[in-house]
Amino acid sequence: MARLAALTQPTRSDWIFALRTVSAGLMALLVAYALKLDHPQWAMMTVFIVAQPVAGMVLAKGFYRLLGTLAGGVAAIGFTTVFGTNPWVLVTVLAVWIGICTFVSSLLRNPEAYGAALAGYTAMIIGLPSFGQPHLVVDLTVARCAEIVLGIVCAGLTSRLILPRLASDAIISRLKRCILDLATYAGGAFSGGDAATLSGLHRKLVADTQTLGEMRAYARLEAPSFAPRAHPVRRTIGQLLSALSAARTLHSHAAPRNAALLPVRSELQALVTELAARPGALDDTAPWVERLDAISAKARQMPEESVDQGDDRVGTVTRLIIAADFAEALKQVLRGLDALRAPVARPARSSRQPALVVHRDYPGALRNAVRAALATLLVAAFWLTTKWTEAAGTVILVAVVSSLFAARPNPVQVSWGFFKGTLLALPFAFLVGQIALPALPGFGWFMLFVVPILVPTALAMANPRYVGVATAFAINFLAFLSPHQAMTYDPGPFFAGSASILVGILLAIGVFIIVLPANPWLAANRIVRAMREDLARLCLHERVARRSAFESLAYDRINQLMPLVQNAGRKGDAVLGGGVAAVTVGLEILRLRGASQGQAIPSETALSIADFLRGLARELLFRAPGDPQTATVAVARQYAAAIARRNDAGELLQIAASLRIIAAAMDDFPDFFAKDKG
Hints:
Organism: Mesorhizobium qingshengii
Membrane topology: Multi-pass membrane protein
Strand content: under 5%
Number of strands: 0
InterPro entries: PHBA_efflux_AaeB/fusaric-R
Radius of gyration: 29 Å
Subcellular location: Cell membrane
Mean pLDDT: 84
Keywords: Cell membrane, Membrane, Transmembrane, Transmembrane helix, Transport
Largest sheet: none
């Protein structure tokens, strides 16, 4: 209970965010009044729509909101000009446009995805009121863009100038927390800690790497000077995953106590325990890097024959190499932290960094597009048939919700939260807009009534647990309130408009449930399949990929996988665990490819490695879950044992260790490394 209270208790940063957001909203509304804009509430609503705790996130969301609004406005002008005389053709074209924008949005990432979705439903928001009055569409577009620009400018200025929380600082803070969490996880893994606790930490670390990746894009928009540090962030995330995978493997395959393993394991455990426990441990990373270098060097030394290694010499070498990999990856993470805190100018490289390959879920995007277009068209047809004036609001809300939330892993849950926030806003808006302000007009009274409502709302927006409902409350409270300088008591239109909005959200939820319902596991399986294909390409492609390129690709896949399975219990944990293990498998494949091309190993060993990699590629591409494993894993262990029997050279023992690591990962997550039957 104490921990829950701490999580829900607003922090100083939360209060700053709340007061800053409300102040920016009031400023935007006041300027909108001064400029005599037709719908001043849109300026204030925009502030709450783009409001984010980090300045770079506000700028990014505001920038793409402006682009989306401009694109939607231009589309509305074009469609209305060409098809404005035929309402049925016009709504059909608008529905198709929403489908196209939803398709594009589903293939992109935030905040770009938000801008694409906005371009779709903005055309509907501007186009519908222009029915029968096409001459108004340009004026509506200009007015809407002006209102939104005003809100973006107010939100951006306040977030950047009033006690700003910069994305670059947030990245460093989050990375430091990740390092300490990794140290805590590794300390538990090396000492045989509680499995449930370790699983929770594992999940948290993977989620935090996803957040780091998102913040990287925001920081680049916030300050162009951050661009040179974008690659270190990406590389550091890959090293975090590599260290996490190595620690998990050492925990899953703990060996009997022997004299060769104990010194390295004990030194690693002591280091990570001290790192996690010492206040300010990351203020100076040099001592930790020096110790990790020494541990890595010791782990990579082949143990002497006289040292007790138990009955499995290759197993001992394998675990020592994994320990060395963990130490090396953690060292690179610490160096990445230093690079972010004190970037240095580097000479331009002759070759460009590898491009990040993004997985595009085309089947899922097509489903989202069809669903959004069909839902919008059906409700618009109802509106045109019945000629119910307020149904225009229903059409707009169906378009907004079915497009904006389409790509979420659980769109029904997100939309239901939006509905709850909207429903909760209704009585507050009625009391303030229909009762209080008509009796007590003026901006001073408006502030007195609205600030006590919006400040707690903004505090809730700063809490990840309540951000969805709170944001819906803030936006729709202002939409229902529709603040103008002269407020009047007119409950009929108020309740009619409110009802159309609520009905629109419920219809969109029904569409998500009935029309082509989303199955997150299908999307997750497509990403897992892409990860297996990545590994197969590493096995078969003539050119050996660079480690940094593979790590960038692997962490991108895991980032996409995380939101789909993170709330799926043990099944989701198994998929995420398999994803992180795939990083280890890929790195060991690269190690085998590099070794096989060297001059220090016999030709028959190189041929054996090539045969094994071809068999591994077949396993990854063709074996289905539940099917018996092929001989790949057994062959890996046989090759490793044969190498150990024939030769004690360090290079060959490292090859044997790589084979054992791959076999262990495939044994731990057999279904992940098998072709799904869908």
